[in-house]
Amino acid sequence: MTQLKDKLSEKIQAHRPRTARLTKEFADIVIDKVDIGQCMGGARDIKCLVTDISSLDPQEGIRFRGKTIPETFAALPKAAGSAYPTVESFWYFLLTGEVPTQAQVDEVVAQWKTRQSVPPYVFDVIRTLPRDSHPMAMLSIGILALQRDSKFAAYYNSGKFNKTNAWEQVYEDASDLVARIPVIAAFIYNLKYRDDKQIAIDPKLDMGANFAHMIGQSEEYKDVARMYFILHSDHESGNVSAHTTHLVHSALSDPYYAYSAGLSGLAGPLHGLANQEVLSWTMKFQEKYCKGVEPTKELITKALWDTLNSGQVIPGYGHAVLRKTDPRYMSQREFCLKTPGLKDDPLFKLVSMIFEVAPGVLSEHGHTKNPWPNVDAQSGVIQWYYGVKHWDFYTVLFGVGRALGCMANITWDRALGYALERPKSVTTDMLEKWAAEG
Ligand code: CMX
Fold first, then answer.
1. How many other CB atoms are there within 10 angstroms of residue 381's CB atom?
2. Is there a catalytic annotation at residue 367?
3. Superfamily of structural domain 1-30+49-422
4. Is residue 267 within 6 Å of ligand 1 at its C-beta?
5. For 30-75, what is each residue's pLDDT tens digit?
6. Where are the domains of the chain?
7. Which pTM does this prediction carry?
8. ipTM of the assembly?
């Protein structure tokens, strides 16, 4: 056992009586009601999922294990010579809720190195796809191809399956998956955008730094990767990628099946793909409205209205839960403002100008409940600045980060024995009858 698995086991034993008591003694306590609007409207706001990994307040934004983003960054041990924590220290924190010591972080870093080797057949499978396949399809297929290695599936089929211990095999798969996904993502990047010039893993580097190294990036990008993966990790359980992963795993499908499905949800333009759409929208705006002239607030206003009037959404704005500017947006904006060169970058200035204008336009438009920017409105600018200009890759980066939250969640799902998810559907006739009855 590693220190992380030991600590996790201790936390799980301590938590189990709480879950058991709620299920046994308080199962019939009502915590919500459901109206027709929610039934027709994507189950918005219905309280029917449990997670202790993160929670999302509409005004304040995300807290990981009770800590805001600045508190999380401040509390965790930093990567050597960096102002940012390693992804490995964040993984320890997400799983256990405790800030690790440097020695505990070092052990996770060393552990991931033993787990990060990706079997060659996974690369072969990705290579057989047409080169113009979307990188999210490649990533989802790559993760699915790893399923053959699932320790949880092998355990389930071993004839010795024991519900109490099953979390240990989910933890093993989850740890393998989070260690391997950046390697697969880097392979896809090099295959598609660097003429298949692959770069070997550097065993001396932590996960974020190694990812930067494997895609041929600069020293500075190491912190970008660490920050990006941590910020995108988790956003409580109701969003499409997290919920899909949880739902699929609730059928005892192993973590590879579950996260491949989660990634497919992340690839939607209303979810993770919005960060690619933001860059695409901004570039089209410059091309169409700014030929030979500097962008102005007036031009941006016109472009925003043209987008809305053509029935499209403004990518990177609005949110199903948040009702203020996403702190993940602010965290990335602060990174831009404190990075010499980036703060004066024309694209960053343009995105900042959109931030000044878009909330007013969306408020006047009057449809969205939240006119403020979300995480996706800012992330592409940073990637672009550092030379990662293939914006269809941006959701892959999101998917590498989101693996941390999804994998931490399903490890705990199994530890606490969460049930097969199976909500009830109703017919339109039933709804009309209830509507008529008032
Ligand atoms: N531009 C234009 N219209 C918007 C809008 C936007 N950015 N955000 C919401 N609306 C519209 C909705 O389409 C909906 O319109 P109709 O009433 O005509 O159907 C109306 O406002 C009400 O929507 P809402 O309750 O405010 O928002 P939802 O919970 O339904 O949707 C989201 C949330 C994120 C899908 C939506 O705000 C959106 O489409 N935003 C743009 C895409 C985006 O940035 N997605 C990334 C979200 C973060 C992430 O998951 O990565």
1. 23
2. no
3. Citrate Synthase, domain 1 (1.10.580.10)
4. no
5. 999 999 999 999 999 999 999 999 999 999 999 999 999 999 999 9
6. 1-30+49-422
7. 0.96
8. 0.99
